[in-house]
């Protein structure tokens, strides 16, 4: 099972989020080829800014594995994690982060940030492998009809 196939799980979560009226953000955590957790943006439904796909997925994976250390896992994020989510990923010590679309891929909706996930990793002293662009076209297409 390769990165594209695993990213498709995160993208499916993003599609579900969009169908529910949320921003189309999804995340999936794998341990090898085993799916441990998958979740999506639920901010509007849960009425909290903390209901990000990545936070839910990290929380679900920790509970599923009964530990807070996910050093043997990989997270697939349909979109570049915000700094809050990146911090949670780093706290869980996930060594590999695979990203579909970056903020710069959606300039009509998202402004580019000066502080990116790589900067937070460097600042925190955590050095995960960060892979960008896996499934990017499919993720960007989810935003085609969304306007600010």
Structure description:
The protein has helices at residues 3-19, 43-46, 53-65, 83-91, 117-124, 136-142, and strands spanning 26-31, 34-40, 74-79, 96-101, 129-132. The protein has 148 residues and is an alpha/beta fold. α5 links the parallel β4 and β5. The radius of gyration is 14 Å and the shape is globular. The model has no long low-confidence stretch (mean pLDDT 94).
Secondary-structure-based class equals alpha/beta
Instruction: Specify Rg, calculated over alpha carbons.
Output: 14 Å
Distance between the termini: 36 Å
Oligomer: single chain
* Average pLDDT over all residues: 94
Largest sheet: 5 strands, mixed
Count every beta strand, where a strand is a DSSP E run of 2 or more residues.
Answer: 5
The H/E string reads: HEEHHEHEHEH
Poorly predicted parts:
none
- Total helical elements: 6
| Overall body shape | globular
Strand line-up of the largest beta sheet? 2-1-3-4-5
Strand content: 15-25%
Helix content: 25-40%
What's this, in brief?
This protein is an alpha/beta fold and 148 residues long. It is built from six helices and five strands; from the N terminus they run H-E-E-H-H-E-H-E-H-E-H.
Descriptive labels:
alpha/beta; 148 residues; 20% strand; 6 helices; single chain; five-stranded mixed sheet; globular
Q: What topology does this entry show?
A:
Layout: H1 3-19, E1 26-31, E2 34-40, H2 43-46, H3 53-65, E3 74-79, H4 83-91, E4 96-101, H5 117-124, E5 129-132, H6 136-142
Parallel strand pairs: 3-4, 4-5
Antiparallel strand pairs: 1-2, 1-3
